[in-house]
Amino acid sequence: MKEVTSVSLDELKALSEKMYGGLVKADVDIVKRIVLIDMEMHADGEAYLLEHGSKQQDIWGINLYPASYGTAEFLEFDSMINIRPTQKNPSRDVLDEAIRDAITKIIGGVVHD
To answer: What pTM does this model have?
Structure first.
């Protein structure tokens, strides 16, 4: 697992080769704008972020599919850590459009080809 401020598509592709389904797991702190990539479970990144001062309500788990870069399928809002009934998110998906937009913008600023 590593924190990134910039990551190339080639690096994501290499990381995705070791995961089933060609994905790279990532966690995003939408307030601190921190992105962690390459963990076995989103909960690992969540624990790291919490230990380093992030707040639970700001951390969201996503999957990146490097082979689909440039399409809507590149970023998937799916993680067990996203299930938060107290935040009106009873799903593994991120239901709030504002949060989805924030994640999309942060990832767009971090991933480059």
So the answer is: 0.96
DSSP 59: E
Q: Could you tell me the two tokens for 37?
A: 């990539």
Residue environment code for 44-83, b if the CB has 16+ CB neighbours within 10 A, otherwise e = bbbbbbeeeebeeebbbbbbbbbeebeeeebbbbbbebbe
pLDDT per residue rounded down to tens, the chain (113 residues) = 999 999 999 999 999 999 888 999 999 999 999 999 999 999 999 999 999 999 999 999 999 999 999 999 999 999 999 999 999 999 999 999 999 999 999 999 999 99
Please report how many Cα atoms fall inside a 13 Å half-sphere around the Cα of residue 36, on the Cβ side. Answer: 22
